[in-house]
């Protein structure tokens, strides 16, 4: 059984290969949300990885295990824009955290990024939008 204050590390050493083959070098970051049904309840973000076609974020985004069990994790990759332009959603994956076994805090795997427009509305807290 997981201790209610144990940390869950659902995103650790996140990376992407050939994220922007046609665009060239981009500045990207990852934003994650814990979701309870359709409601987003907690958010975490990585730092921006600059000028990369195969970004490696090498950061740990932590959620309390008690908050994550039975929920899903929305993982979104964004391209940061300069100036006043909205950031561009590049891809999204939703990971069901109810598959985590009790006593295990890690779920390893590769997840296909889907078009952000398939699950995302404009993110009003940061100016991110889908094109």
Automatic annotation (TrEMBL):
SMART domains, per database record: C2
GO MF terms, alphabetically ordered: small GTPase binding; transmembrane transporter binding
Coiled-coil ranges (or none): none
Chain ranges of the C2 domain: 1-111
One GO-annotated biological process of the protein: regulation of synaptic plasticity
Keyword terms, alphabetized: Synapse
Subcellular location(s) per record: Synapse
GO cellular component: cytoskeleton of presynaptic active zone; presynaptic membrane
Any Pfam family: C2
Name listed for the protein in its UniProt record: C2 domain-containing protein
